[in-house]
Specification:
The protein is α/β, with parallel strands linked by helices. The chain has a domain of 204 residues: Rossmann fold (3-Layer(aba) Sandwich), CATH 3.40.50. It has twelve helices and twelve strands. The strands form three sheets. A seven-stranded parallel β-sheet has the order 3-2-1-4-5-6-10, with helices on both faces. Helix 3 runs parallel beside helix 4 and helix 5 crosses helix 11. It is globular, with a radius of gyration of 20 Å.
Length: 343
């Protein structure tokens, strides 16, 4: 039985692909001609060249497929052309679901995001899978595109396609080649580029556990249902303090007001337009930080048997991996990585 994975060259997708191969699945991965294949090095998978924007390539990749993991997404908090994000995330998902339906795929696991759920609640309780957000509550093009893409998956399930939806939080661990926005927080800390922090929070999870949650969703998930794959709600200050404990490097002590951070973001965005480089302080990211993205993920534990592990160990693993792969610079950064290797 052939299993197709989109987004296999990414952080989470590569871990899913490796776990599928390790459990004996015949895995085909959809890769673009320009894809960086480092994350798949040494992995016995069949490569199908294609793109979510190329319908013909999706039909070719789907031949003989019985199980689909749609992990691919344009995960950027800034883009010179936001249309590209919607074309990949929304239209690409719609095309893929349609092709999967015509191919008779027996199970689809769609990777959404916790962002479609983690919105403020009226009573202050933690959001969960029963929380129904609106498009107006989505901040920025990435969140809006993933909200709309999740609706495409829900519509496909209602039309008879056996789709299960998973909503990962912020995975951390080894193999974050790009890196992800969460990974950049860790790297900015390691490289001494975070003199201050804002009052915000994330739910972190071990990337290997999140990948395992996808496989569990394929086996045990109920069609049309959503499952949050998370672990630990942490403020940004708590994350930085944990990294300080791992590395011996001092955590920033200055808490930056959101208004100041937003002003810096707009100034950086203006400078980026002049220079043509990507902003270091994405305005959308600053706006997102006004709300702590804390959630409850007990449904996946109860229904799927999902078992979230220790996030602190995943942070240690991430620090060591970044150091081993040349992402950490300078004497202080090297010392921090060395401290993590001793821990």
């Amino acid at each position: 039985m052939t299993t197709l994975v989109t987004g296999a060259t990414g952080f989470l997708g590569s871990h899913i692909s490796r776990q599928l191969v390790a459990t004996g699945h015949s895995v085909r991965v959809l890769v673009r001609r320009s894809s960086n294949l480092q994350a798949l090095e040494g992995l016995a998978v069949e490569r199908a060249e294609g793109d979510l924007r190329d319908l013909a390539s999706l039909h070719r990749a789907m031949k003989g497929v019985r199980r689909l993991f749609h992990v691919a997404a344009d995960y950027r908090l800034w883009s010179a052309n936001p249309y590209d994000i919607y074309e990949t995330n929304v239209e690409g998902t719609r095309r893929l679901m349609d092709v999967a339906g015509h191919a008779g795929v027996e199970r689809v696991v769609y990777t959404s995001t916790v962002a479609t759920i983690a919105v403020p609640t009226h009573d202050g309780s933690l959001p969960n899978e029963e929380t129904h957000a609106t498009l107006d509550q989505m901040v920025g093009h990435y969140k809006r595109s993933k909200f709309l893409a999740e609706l495409e998956a829900i519509k496909a399930a209602a039309a008879g396609l056996p789709v299960v939806i998973v909503n990962p939080t912020a995975p951390v661990g080894p193999g974050d080649w790009k890196p992800t926005p969460t990974g950049r927080i860790i790297l900015d800390f390691l490289n001494g580029k975070m003199p201050a922090y804002v009052d915000t929070g994330l739910n972190l999870a071990v990337v290997e556990d999140v990948a395992a949650g996808h496989l569990l969703a394929a086996e045990k998930g109920r069609i049309g249902e959503r499952y949050i794959l998370g672990a630990c709600n942490m403020t940004l200050k708590q994350i930085l303090d944990a990294l300080a404990g791992i590395t011996g490097r001092r955590a920033p002590r200055i808490r930056l007001p959101h208004a100041v951070a937003l002003a810096a973001g707009y100034a950086d965005q203006l400078f980026s337009r002049v220079t043509g480089r990507e902003p270091r302080i994405p305005v959308e990211g600053v706006k997102m930080s006004r709300h702590r993205m804390f959630v409850a993920s007990s449904k996946a534990e109860t229904e799927l048997g999902y078992k979230p592990g220790e996030v602190g160990l995943a942070l240690e693993s991430a620090v060591r991996w970044y150091g081993e792969h040349g992402y950490v610079h300078g004497r202080a950064g090297a010392k921090a990585v060395a401290q993590a290797q001793v821990a």
